[in-house]
Design goal:
The chain is α+β, with helices and mostly antiparallel strands. 15% of the residues lie in helices and 38% in strands. It folds into six domains: 152 residues, no CATH class; 81 residues, Immunoglobulin-like, CATH 2.60.40.10; 35 residues; 85 residues, Roll (Ubiquitin-like (UB roll)), CATH 3.10.20; 80 residues, Roll (Ubiquitin-like (UB roll)); 95 residues, Sandwich (Jelly Rolls). The radius of gyration is 57 Å and the shape is rod-shaped.
């Protein structure tokens, strides 16, 4: 039998596929050819030759069966009864040897090959059995008839019906020693980077076709070793890698030889970054950290300031409650209070909060109550937040000139009732305001933040003053003014008048003075949009001013809001003003002769933080 495979093939028979069906579910040709290769690889040639070799036709509608045995070919159905019994015995011996060989295979493979053998031992009819030069050959194996009862197995029926011959002929089928187990392939993987440096500690996963996943880590030489009893030549393994700082990879490797060596090259994330030397990377990271810190410092400072202002529970702030009695409006500097009835906010301990009261067109401000401003009639109240405070702003209706009642007639003599005092005729002032600002007069009879009308005594000369809001500046009076001096509009109410005031966005200032450097003085010309640099965005500074006997008005603006308003006064005063924001500049405005005076003089000084009090000298050299 050693030269069986070297003999030429010869045709035994050809089978059409129209009336038979395969034992395997797929196409007849593909499966029987595949199973024949499987039988050849598992069973020794001495017993594997029991099955004829199938070859598919070009049209795939028939199978030709071959054998390498020489000699006469006789079909089983042409044999005499005694010859059939001898053939049956040979079949029994072949089947027993085939079954015995399966027992020598690994236990994990035995069940699969038993199924393959049992399916191959099915034949559609006994004329599938041939005797070639005295040796049994099975054709059309693995097929049954279309209507055949698969539980009736023809070859095994022959075994049960075949008596053992008295002197069995010795067949040249030597006992086959169990073949050595096929070699188990093994896989060695080396992991390197793009610079051909081995990488240790890389997590490598190996997934077998059966779904089992084995994970391991590369050693100091960058290697991992995979071997398993489940591996056979031709298997495919899916290899994946995972390593910090490197892109993950996935590769499919085929075990095409006993020992497979493979090298995986990993690429870094941010590969261009690692092209720099390590010392340069550390320096760049340090510079980036410093830049980020510089960018975050203003934000951290703002958050800390906001935290200190808004969180009273840590004991560094007090609550200020403001109530407006009557028709009026109260706002604060710094921002926080802005209400017409009642509101409250929280301010830092010892913070000076400036409250300003604004009456409506039909009311006047009467007085303050609480907050250290009891019975103060000026519309500005400075509250020091050394404790929780409540301040009440009182507004009342504008007084109406009473009409004197007629005198009582003497009982003894009736006198004619004098006529009532005539009501003074009124004229209407119509104010149109464009932009961000409001218009007021020194008596606050006129106080408009938007277009409004006010009734005034006919013939009265009204002095209108513009007050821009944050981010705006007064531009011009368009019409209606009898005369204009600086930014002040004088309107003679001889008849109904319409006045138009324009505010625009804050223009770029021309120059800024430094605090603590000079005493600014003037007279009838007044002062507008005069800036001082305080050197910081929050703190306290000194304001000293002297408006002498003729009344003038001095206003201090910070970030577009009124920080201080002297109102129309003739006095000398020193005051420490607190401010807090993002700007380091204030703007000063002086309105001279605010109460229809003629010749006036004024002076003021702006000090820096912790500056000493300076003397302020007016034109007349009066020291304050």
């Amino acid at each position: 039998m050693s030269d069986y495979s070297s003999q030429p093939r010869r045709v035994i028979t050809t089978t059409g596929l129209g009336n038979i069906q395969p034992m395997w579910p797929d196409t007849a040709q593909g499966n029987v050819l595949q199973r024949y290769q499987q039988i050849k690889s598992v069973f020794p040639e001495q017993i594997g030759c029991f099955f004829a070799e199938p070859v598919s036709s070009d049209t795939e509608k028939s199978i030709t069966w071959y054998s390498r045995f020489t000699g006469d070919i006789i079909n089983y159905e042409q044999l005499a009864e005694k010859e059939k019994q001898e053939v049956n015995y040979q079949i029994q011996q072949y089947i027993e040897q085939l079954q015995a060989h399966i027992k020598t295979l690994p236990e994990t493979d035995q069940a699969d090959y038993e199924k393959v053998l049992n399916a191959a031992l099915e034949i559609p009819s006994y004329d599938s059995i041939y005797l070639v030069n005295g040796r049994v050959l099975i054709t059309r194996w693995g097929f049954i008839e279309d209507k055949f009862n698969a539980s009736r197995r023809l070859l095994f029926d022959l075994l049960t019906a075949a008596p053992e011959p008295e002197e069995p002929e010795v067949i040249d089928v030597p006992e086959v020693a169990p073949p050595p187990p096929p070699p188990k392939p093994q896989l060695f993987i080396t992991v390197m980077d793009a610079d051909n440096q081995v990488l240790s500690g890389v997590e490598v996963s190996c997934q077998h076709k059966e779904g089992a996943v084995e994970k391991t880590v590369t050693d100091e030489h960058g290697r991992v070793h995979y071997h398993s009893n489940d591996y056979v030549l031709g298997d495919q393994l899916v290899i994946t890698t995972n390593h910090k700082g490197y892109h993950s990879t996935e590769h499919t490797l085929t075990l095409d030889q006993e020992t497979v060596n493979h090298t995986l090259v990993l690429t870094r994330r941010w590969a261009f970054w690692f092209k720099f030397p390590e010392w340069l990377r550390k320096l760049l990271l340090l510079l980036l950290l410093l830049l980020l810190l510089l960018l975050l410092l203003p934000l951290l400072a703002s958050l800390l300031s906001l935290f200190n202002v808004l969180i009273p529970t840590i004991g560094n702030a007090h609550k200020l409650n403001v109530v407006a009695v009557g028709e009026g409006h109260v706002v604060s500097q710094p921002d926080g209070i802005d209400c017409g009835s009642q509101c409250e906010d929280i301010f830092r301990i010892d913070k000076e909060v400036i409250l300003t009261a604004y009456p409506t067109n039909t009311t006047v401000f009467t007085s303050w109550k609480g907050g250290g401003c009891d019975n103060t009639t000026a519309p500005v109240c400075v509250v020091k937040m050394d404790d929780k405070k409540q301040v009440i702003a009182q507004f009342s209706a504008k007084p109406v000139t009473p009409v004197a009642p007629p005198a009582q007639a003497e009982p003894e003599e009736k006198k004619p009732t004098p006529p009532p005092e005539p009501i003074k005729p009124q004229a209407v002032l119509d104010l149109d305001i464009t932009g961000k600002g409001y218009i007021s007069d020194p008596t606050q009879t006129v106080n408009c933040e938007e277009d409004c009308t006010t009734s005034l005594p006919k013939g009265k000369m009204v002095q209108l003053l513009p007050f821009p809001k944050k981010g705006a500046v007064f531009d011009r009076w368009e019409s209606g003014c009898t005369k204009v001096e600086g930014e002040t509009c004088y309107v003679s109410m001889d008849s109904d008048q319409q006045v138009v005031a324009h505010f625009t966005q804050t223009p770029q200032k021309i120059a800024t003075r430094e605090c603590g450097e000079e005493i600014k003085a003037g007279g009838n010309e007044g002062l507008a949009d005069f800036y001082y640099n305080l050197g910081r965005s929050s703190g306290e500074f000194l304001l000293a001013y002297n408006t002498e006997e003729v009344e003038d008005r001095l206003l201090v603006f910070y970030e577009g809001n009124i920080l201080f308003d002297s109102l129309c006064v003739g006095e000398y005063r020193q005051k420490t003003l607190a401010y807090n924001g993002t700007a380091s500049e204030i703007m000063i405005k002086v309105i001279p002769n605010c109460n229809d005076g003629e010749v006036t003089g004024w002076a003021f000084f702006i000090g820096c933080a912790e500056e000493t009090v300076h003397s302020v000298t007016t034109k007349e050299n009066v020291h304050v």
